[in-house]
Amino acid sequence: MADPAVRLRPVGVADLEMFRRFATEPGLIGLDWSGFRDAQAPARRFAEDGYLGTEDSRLIVEVDEQDVAGFVSWSAGSYTRDAKYWEIGIALLPEWRGKGIGWRAQAMLCDYLFAHTPVQRIQAATHPENLAEQKSLEKAGFHLEGVVRACEFRAGHWRDGHLYSRLRTDPAPPTS
């Protein structure tokens, strides 16, 4: 079976229901579930800027030009005044996981950000137990930098994370 065609596109009104689901359905977002969130926040954010802000944004991951598989996001960070970076993330609906969509969407997002912004560094973090995402990030051209200790409070405990990065000068993997 051929790999499905993956593309990124701006958020539309019809996508807001998926965002509401991620905010209100325990477990839908997997290990990133951090409790119930405001179900109306997605509509307010969409009305503000269509999820294309200067400091954080989202794009929809679409498969075969019709099916919404989830979304990718990026937010600004800075190590120093002149060393800005993007931190990216992805959330796929359960039925789209494990099909080779996630790594391709993340690689495409990096290509997009390197083409349209001057950052040198894009980073992503994941949970130590999320082996699928670790493989996905590596396939998308990211390198493991190390463990960030006690960086996230989830399920009643402080938990470690794995930090990955991709630099503008790193080779981009083919996504098709």
How far apart are the first and last residues' alpha carbons, in Å?
14 Å
* Percentage of residues in DSSP E strands: 35-45%
- Secondary structure: helix percent: 10-25%
Number of DSSP strands? 7
- Provide the spatial order of strands within the biggest beta sheet: 1-2-3-4-5-7-6
Q: What CATH architecture do you see?
A: 3-Layer(aba) Sandwich
- The overall number of domains is 1
The CATH topology assignment is: Aminopeptidase
Round the Cα radius of gyration to an integer and report it.
16 Å
Q: Identify the CATH homologous superfamily.
A: Gcn5-related N-acetyltransferase (GNAT)
Total of DSSP H or I helical runs spanning 4+ residues? 4
- Mean pLDDT rating: 94
Using the coordinates above, name the CATH class. Answer: Alpha Beta
Order of H and E elements: EHHEEEHEHEE
Poorly predicted regions: none
Structural class: alpha+beta
* Coarse morphology: globular
Biggest sheet, in brief?
7 strands, mixed
Task: From the structure above, extract its key features.
Aminopeptidase; 4 helices; single chain; globular; 7-stranded mixed β-sheet; 176 residues; alpha+beta
Overall description:
By secondary structure, the protein is of the alpha+beta class. It has a single domain (6-167), classed as Gcn5-related N-acetyltransferase (GNAT) (Aminopeptidase). It is built from 4 helices and 7 strands, in the order E-H-H-E-E-E-H-E-H-E-E. Strand 6 (143-154) and strand 7 (157-167) form a beta hairpin. The radius of gyration is 16 Å and the shape is globular.
